[in-house]
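In this supplementary section we document a worked example of the pipeline. Step one takes a protein sequence of length 376 as its only input; no multiple sequence alignment statistics are reported here. Step two produces a three-dimensional model, which step three serialises into C-alpha cells for compact storage. The input and output of this example are shown verbatim.
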Amino acid sequence: MAAGSGHRLGGAAPKQYQTVGDRTVLRHAIDNLLADPRVAGVQVVIDPAHRALYEAAVVGLDLPPPALGGASRQESVRSGLAALADAGPEAVLIHDAARPFLTGDVLDRLFTALTHHDGAVPALPVVDSLKRGPDGRINADVARAGLWRAQTPQAFHFTAIHGAHQATADDPTLTDDAAVAQRAGLTVALVDGDEALFKITTPADLVKARHWLGVAATRRIRVGQGFDVHQFGAGDHVTLGGVRIPHDHGLIGHSDADVALHAITDAVLGAIADGDIGQHFPPSDPRWKDADSTVFLRHAGQLVTTAGGRIAHIDLTVIAERPRIGPHRLAMARHIADTLALLPHQVSVKATTTEQLGAMGRGEGLAALALCTIEI
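The serialised model returned by step three reads:
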C-alpha cells in the first residue's frame, strides 16, 4: 500500500519515496518481501500522480503494473486485491510501504497462524500507561491490559479478505484490514510483531529508520559445515535425523550414532566458532553412552541463541546406498526443525549415493554432510 501522500513527514517527496540508505522506503519494503521464498510476487498500489517516482523506485524489479489507489485506504486495498484476483493466490499480505523493515520471523508467525485462522496480524502489547485527555489535560486513565499495537503486513486467505472488502462499504472507523475482516465475521489472530516494523510518519521516524538501517548493517551472516560418518554393525535399525529407520544393520557409535544430527550439530557449532561435538560431548564420558543425539543438537542451538544469533537454515545431505532415505525425509526435517525451534521450510534434507564407489558405495556405513546458516 503506497498510495498515501504522507503530509506529516514533509519533504520534497511522499514518505514512501524518501530514501533510507541507498534505497527508498518503498524499495526496502518490496525487497524484504521478495527476499522470502514463500512470497510469489508483490503488487504495489500507488497514487496515479506518483507514477514517475514509483518507476524510479522499482528500477530493476520484475513487478506487475501498479494498481491505482483511490480516495480511501479501503478503496485502494480493493484495487490491489482486484489486480491479484486473476492470479488466484492462496494468501495475501497487505503491507504498508511506510514500514520498510520486515523480518522473516514475522512472516513465519503470520503464515503459521493462517493454518488455523482466516487472517493474522502482527502486534505489540501496549506497555506504556494510557491517559485520556481530549482537552490537553488528563481526565481519565485507560486500562492497557489486553491492548495491542497493530502492525503490517496483515495476512489473510485471499478469497476471504477479497470477499470481505467487496462486501464492506467504506467506513473511516475501519482503520486497517483486520477491522474489515472482523466486520465480515472472519477470525483474525494476533501474533508477535517486531519493533523493527515501526511506521514512518514524522521526520523523527525517518531519522529513526536511518539509524535502524545502520544498526541492521552490523548484522553478520555466518555459515558452518559439519561432516560425520559411522560404520555398520549388528542391529535392526539406524537412527537418522532423530528418526528410527528399520534396517538389517545398526550403526556403531558411542551415542546413538545418528550421523545426520552429529553433522548438523558440528555445522551449528562451526557457525559460531565454538568447537565441535567431541569437545562438548566427549566420547570418553560415560554420560553420553547410547545418548539421544537430539540432546547434542538442542544444546548447539541454545549456544547460538546465547551468542546473540538465530539459525536461518539447515541443509543436510545423507550419503548412503541403503537404507532408502526418501520415505523418511519429511519426518527427519520435522524432528530437526522441532529440536531447533525452526519452521519446516528452514530445514532441507536430501540424500545421495556414491555410485557404489568407496566405503559408502560398498555399504560399509553411512555419512552425512550439513551446512548451517545463522544471522548473528
